[in-house]
């Protein structure tokens, strides 16, 4: 892919592997990696859980939309991992589609629940307090099913994170980049 062409933007539910895959793609295409949540934390000088607790979700979504615009409207081309909710607020998915090649990481709910429980759920305020994978999978589906149509607008869909398919994805991104 021509690194000068467009941003590469990863979308998907929390735990779908956006940051991990984003870092791999950034290396493969020699582009800087950016993380939207990290940009919000840096701008506000507060952790994401604190922003939710002290300012509320609506404020977080406004800041998220602003940071997304700053990153995607800048000259510098990047690989960007977005937060799970980002594509679903403030017309963000339209912006993502217009500014880059978007990739949806589709992962089954049970797998997401296991991954999230292996991490520190306290850093993800929307999931705080849930301990069992089955319960978390049900919560994820109830809470997030409405997000899937937003993610599905992405230019590429990717559902496997094995190394072999990682190579395939890099080739697909390359081909998609050439066609941009
Ligand atoms: C959120 C996901 C988080 C973070 C915030 C809200 C969401 O990012 O943006 O806690 O609404 O799904 P990850 O998808 O990286 O967990």
Question: Please, could you describe this protein's structure?
Answer:
This protein is an alpha/beta fold. Helices cover 53% and strands 11% of the residues. The protein is built from nine helices and five strands, in the order βαβαααβαβαααβα. A five-stranded parallel β-sheet has the order 2-3-1-4-5. Helix 2 packs across helix 4 (57-73), helix 4 packs parallel to helix 5 (92-99) and helix 6 crosses helix 7 (133-144). The longest helix has 17 residues, at 57-73. The relative contact order is 0.21. The structure holds shikimate-3-phosphate.
User: In oligomeric terms, what are we looking at?
Assistant: single chain
Strand order of the largest sheet: 2-3-1-4-5
Run of helices and strands: EHEHHHEHEHHHEH
> Span between N and C termini?
9 Å
Helix content: 40-55%
- Beta-strand portion reads 5-15%
Largest sheet: 5 strands, parallel
* CA-atom Rg in angstroms: 16 Å
Contiguous helical run count = 9
Small-molecule components bound: shikimate-3-phosphate
> Average pLDDT, to the nearest integer?
89
**Structural class by SSE content:** alpha/beta
What is the number of E strands?
A: 5
- Poorly predicted sequence stretches spanning 5 or more consecutive residues: none
Shape: globular
Structure in a nutshell:
The chain has 180 residues and is of the alpha/beta class. 53% of the residues lie in helices and 11% in strands. The protein contains nine helices and five strands; from the N terminus they run βαβαααβαβαααβα.
């Amino acid at each position: 892919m021509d690194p000068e062409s467009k941003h590469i933007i990863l979308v998907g539910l929390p735990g779908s592997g956006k940051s991990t895959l984003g870092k791999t793609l950034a290396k493969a295409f020699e582009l800087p990696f950016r993380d939207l949540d990290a940009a919000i934390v840096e701008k506000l000088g507060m952790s994401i859980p604190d922003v939710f607790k002290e300012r509320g979700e609506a404020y977080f979504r406004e800041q998220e939309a602003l940071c997304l615009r700053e990153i995607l409207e800048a000259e510098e081309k990047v690989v960007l991992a977005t937060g799970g909710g980002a594509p679903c607020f403030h017309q963000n998915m339209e912006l993502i589609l217009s500014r880059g090649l978007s990739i949806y990481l589709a992962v089954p709910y049970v797998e997401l629940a296991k991954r999230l429980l292996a991490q520190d759920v306290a850093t993800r305020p929307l999931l705080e307090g849930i301990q069992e994978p089955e319960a978390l999978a049900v919560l994820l589906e109830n809470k997030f099913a409405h997000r899937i149509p937003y993610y599905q607008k992405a230019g590429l869909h990717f559902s496997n994170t094995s190394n072999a398919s990682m190579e395939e994805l890099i080739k697909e991104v390359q081909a998609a980049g050439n066609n941009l």
